[in-house]
Design a protein that fits this description.
Chain A: This is Radial spoke head 14 homolog. The complex is a heterodimer. Chain A contains 23 helices and no strands. Chain A is mostly helical. Chain A has a domain at 24-116 and 125-148: Leucine-rich Repeat Variant (Alpha Horseshoe). Helix content of chain A is 68%, strand content 0%. The longest helix of chain A has 15 residues, at 122-136. Chain B is mainly α. Classes of the chains: A mainly alpha, B mainly alpha. At the A-B interface, α17, α20 and α23 of A face α3 of B.
């Protein structure tokens, strides 16, 4: 029976910054109503509570089903920075779940977030870029980012933003440029990326090399990369101490050397010795990419000549535990051993 | 033999010790017994009643306890003592009784309600205290209830209990109320535990994501490797195609040039042959059509020869004329002589003057002929008249000598002159 005495037990959650949650299924609808209220404090408290709830995937599903995203979209352009920050945080946590990602893409949050790219508050921008990064990992998300026309602004931001945010932008770009590359090339992405290849931070270098990989997987990207003379820089990165950088740069070379100009540029930059060292290392993660790059170079007569001396390195690769590496080594040996059958045979 | 209608009165018999073992795991509702022989005569039932001897054996076919008919339908349980005597049960019992009565005429039907008198009808009536509607279907009524929608719990109002009593102070020494170190432990445990739990959750979340992304990254690497291989092969294919195309074009060009050269040679050879006798033929043609002419020859041909021919023609004509003249002269002479010979001549003297007039006639006649001829041959007057005169003289000289040959000549000449 209710007694007029204060209970010895404290209420379970006495955080005054968070709104009180209703019981069971009523929690999220009540929070939705509080989000739409006119009072600032109520909105902030509701957002704080929502941030905690949204870690649970079931709550995310329920929230999206209840139409939270519409109210959150209106809050994105609120004047108060706490509201904006918390909203972006909620959306970024939602984007960590697959259901959340789908919901965000469907309700067009990407275009709503485009306005936050220039937000004065760092955290808001960071959360925004986190959301883009997460969303771009899905093909539909990457398409959404492309359709919202975000690539040129992102490329511009690369030059001005903080390092952390640059990493996120590079992640977004790498996933989006896998799909389509013309916009980025028009915005002048390759020179910017070439600069970033010599950044002191490892993560930025490896991510920039990864973006170049994605760019060079398209035909027009390859031409641009050759023209901007990125290949010598990539070759110099092969000797980098960090394995991620090595992996990304070998990957980028793997794609960029498909064109004849790329190959001649690489031969000019003397790419074969560092690639051979990478292949010879048993535990190198860049082995697969290095073997593929050397295969491309072995199609040139000069390359083949040099590589015939190092044939046993490839033989040793056949014992690698990874099946992909074995296959790649077999193909490489086939290409190296190819002999022309008549004087007019070129390849 | 009275059939046992009350199953409660069961014919219980002690089990025969000889046949049935003492610790039998099952028991019978009615112990198995052998059937007794049916008595022939009906006086037996009284004896069975009074004696209460071995109860009559019931034919299993007419044993009411044996279930008959469709075993799948729901049957009421066998009538028991405690069951209310419902209409249905009563009817069935009566039916069974009637059946048995037909078989065993000695059977006593239990006295039941007598049949209704004529004109009356029996009605079943419930005689219990509480009347009850009897039906097969149980009457059901659906009812539902629901709690109201939750009203939002209003925020807990700040509760400050009213002050009651007097404030009194007490001195509390350290260590009297509680031992902080011991008391704080559970609180600390909870605090630290909750914090660590929250932290673990966050770390797990991040780790899960990191795992996912590393998995994706590994896949992306494989995919990129395959894609690069694909592009390499594509590029190779493109180069080979291009080279093939180039060589094919080269080959076509070569063939074309060869063909052209062959054609040129053939054309040249043909043209040479064709034109080999072009010049001779041209020259021949021209020559034939008279372009190349010797001017002297031409001159001779165009001028001299026609002139010569015309002159020759003239000369011949003159000759012809002369002959014609002679012919006419001879004719005249012959005619005259004929005239003269046919008519006797007056004198021989007249012969000579006749000859002279004849010659004089001939001379003017020749002169006339000359005058006639002169327009024909004007040009060579000087030469020809001399020749003519000479020629006319000859035939005159000849005619005198021979007359008949002259006549023959005349005859011969006339056809010639006619010609």
């Amino acid at each position: 029976m209710a007694q007029p005495r204060i209970s010895a037990y404290l209420p379970p959650d006495i955080d005054p910054t968070k709104a009180a949650l209703a019981f069971g299924r009523r929690a999220l609808p009540k929070l939705n109503e509080e989000l739409q209220s006119a009072e600032l404090l109520t909105q902030q408290r509701a957002l704080m509570a929502l941030c905690d709830l949204v870690h649970d995937p079931e709550k995310v599903y329920q929230a999206i089903a209840l139409g939270f995203l519409a109210s959150l979209k209106t809050l994105l352009v609120h004047q108060d920075q706490t509201v904006r920050q918390k909203t972006t945080e909620v959306l970024s946590i939602m984007a960590l779940h697959s259901i959340g990602r789908e919901g965000l893409i469907r309700s067009g949050v990407i275009s709503a977030l485009a306005g936050l790219l220039d937000d004065p508050v760092d955290i808001c921008r960071k959360n925004t870029h986190q959301i883009f990064d997460m969303l771009a990992k899905l093909p539909e998300g990457a398409g959404g980012v492309l359709q919202a026309g975000l690539i040129p602004p992102l490329v511009l931001k690369m030059q001005t933003e903080l390092d952390e945010i640059q990493e996120l932008i590079l992640g977004t770009l790498s996933n989006c440029l896998r799909v389509e590359v013309s916009e980025a090339l028009a915005a002048g992405a390759v020179p910017v990326l070439k600069e970033k290849l010599s950044h002191p931070s490892t993560a930025i270098r490896s991510k920039a090399a990864w973006v170049l990989l994605e760019i060079s997987s398209h035909a027009e990207g390859k031409i641009e990369v050759c023209k901007e003379e990125v290949i010598p820089v990539l070759v110099s990165l092969l000797e980098d101490t960090q394995p991620e950088v090595q992996v990304s740069s070998t990957g980028a070379l793997m794609f960029a050397l498909v064109t004849p100009q790329g190959r001649s540029s690489a031969m000019g930059a003397e790419a074969i010795p560092p690639l051979l060292t990478l292949v010879a290392e048993e535990t190198s993660k860049a082995r697969l990419n290095a073997i593929k790059t050397l295969t491309l170079l072995a199609e040139l007569p000069e390359g083949r000549q040099t590589l015939l001396d190092h044939r046993d390195t490839f033989q040793r690769c056949l014992d690698d535990p990874s099946e992909a590496v074995q296959r790649a080594a077999e193909i490489a040996i086939t290409v190296i051993d190819w002999k022309p059958s008549c004087s007019r045979d070129l390849f | 033999m009275e059939p046992t209608m009350e199953p409660a009165v069961l014919p219980v018999r002690a089990p025969e010790p000889a046949d049935v073992p003492a610790d039998v795991p099952y028991s019978f509702c009615s112990q198995p017994r052998s059937l007794s022989s049916r008595p022939k005569y009906r006086e037996q039932p009284k004896a069975a009643e009074t004696e209460k001897g071995p109860l009559s054996y019931v034919n299993i076919m007419f044993d009411p306890r044996v279930v008959r008919g469709n075993v799948l339908s729901v049957r009421p349980s066998p009538p028991q003592h405690t069951e209310p005597h419902t209409l249905e049960v009563k009817r069935q019992r009566r039916a069974r009784r009637k059946v048995l009565a037909r078989k065993f005429t000695q059977v006593h039907i239990r006295p039941g309600t007598p049949e209704p008198v004529e004109g009356r009808e029996h009605v079943h009536v419930q005689t219990e205290l509480y009347l009850e509607e009897i039906s097969d279907r149980i009457i059901e009524v659906d009812g539902e209830c629901q709690t109201d929608d939750f009203l939002d719990r209003p925020p807990t109002p700040l509760f400050i209990p009213a002050k009651s009593g007097k404030d009194v102070a007490t001195q509390i020494e350290e260590g009297e109320l509680f031992d902080f170190d011991i008391e704080v432990k559970p609180i600390l445990e909870v605090l630290v535990g909750k914090t660590v739990e929250q932290a673990l959750l966050e770390v797990m979340e991040e780790e899960e994501l990191a795992q996912l992304w590393s998995h994706q990254r590994a896949f992306a690497e494989l995919r990129n490797a395959e894609f690069a291989e694909l592009q390499r092969l594509e590029e190779q294919d493109r180069r080979i195609k291009e080279e093939k195309e180039r060589r094919r074009l080269e080959h076509l060009e070569k063939l074309r040039k060869q063909r052209e050269t062959a054609e040129k040679i053939a054309a040249r050879a043909f043209a040479q042959r064709y034109l080999a006798d072009l010049i001779p033929s041209v020259f021949n043609n021209l020559h034939d059509s008279g372009f190349f002419y010797d001017p002297i020859e031409r001159d001779i041909e165009t001028e001299f020869l026609p002139w010569l021919m015309s002159e020759v023609e003239e000369t011949l004509q003159k000759k012809v004329l002369g002959r014609t003249m002679l012919d006419s002269l001879i004719r005249m002479v012959v005619e005259k002589r004929l005239d003269e010979f046919s008519h006797p001549p007056p004198s021989a003297q007249t012969n000579a003057p006749s000859e002279e007039p004849r010659t004089a006639d001939a001379a003017p006649k020749s002169g006339e002929a000359d005058a006639a001829d002169q327009p024909v041959a004007e040009e060579e007057e000087t030469d020809h008249p001399v020749a003519e005169e000479e020629e006319t003289d000859h035939p005159v000289a000849e005619e005198e000598e021979t007359d008949q040959p002259v006549a023959e000549e005349e005859e011969a000449d006339q056809p010639v002159a006619e010609e």
